[in-house]
Amino acid sequence: MNENEEILNESGAQEEVKEKTFDELLSDPKYQAEFDKKISKALDTAHSKWEAEQQTKEDEAKKLAKMNAEQKAEHEKQQLEARIAELEAEKTRSEMTSIARGMFSEANVVPSEDLINMLVTTSADDTKKAVEGFISLFNDHVDKAVTERLKNPLPKQGGTANTLTKESIMAVKDRTERLRLIEENQALFN
């Protein structure tokens, strides 16, 4: 945006209006009050979140303090089991990702990271079905596009293929035209 803009005043004449800086805007009590409200709300939200985290930690500490040694051991065991389950799920997902990459590689399809993440599950069967379904769909669309392209070939320009040489094509200064000529005269470049 321009620092200064022209606007029409009430009489229809143009007048120049300078954009206000942040500090100039805050000098207006209305803007300052609104800004203060937003800052206050952000601080309240952050404080509430912090208090909730602290309360959770405090509750956990109280819970552990009330437990006897056997209960503490059981609690720690549950936490370790949960962590093990989490790590096993990560490992399984990693293995499924590797398998999916292999399937894509065999089909000569190069997927994006987002696509792989979308198709991979923790189940080998589900991952295999999803990847095979995508590859099948992808190949069908490629085949249709190639078939459609072959139905409508680009018209050849008569007489240019016989008179052109590799050097004359490379001498064309217009890049788009040069690329078109190279495409039409592939035999000269093999």
Question: Would you kindly provide a written description of the structure presented here, covering whatever features stand out?
Answer:
- This protein has 190 residues and is mostly helical.
- It folds into three domains: 21-66; 68-153, no CATH class; 155-190, no CATH class.
- It has helices at 22-26, 29-66, 69-106, 113-119, 124-151, 160-163, 166-170, 175-184, and strands at 4-8, 14-18.
- The protein has a two-stranded antiparallel sheet with strand order 1-2.
- Strand 1 and strand 2 (14-18) form a beta hairpin.
- The two termini are 53 Å apart.
Largest sheet: 2 strands, antiparallel
The class by helix and strand makeup works out as mainly alpha
User: Distance between the terminal alpha carbons, to the nearest Å?
Assistant: 53 Å
**What is the total domain count?**
3
Order of H and E elements: EEHHHHHHHH
Low-confidence stretches: none
Task: Kindly estimate the percentage of residues that lie in beta strands according to DSSP.
Answer: 5-15%
Amount of helix: over 70%
Radius of gyration: 34 Å
Main sheet strand line-up:
1-2
Q: Averaged pLDDT, please?
A: 85
Helical segment count: 8
Number of strands: 2
Q: Which term fits the overall shape?
A: flat
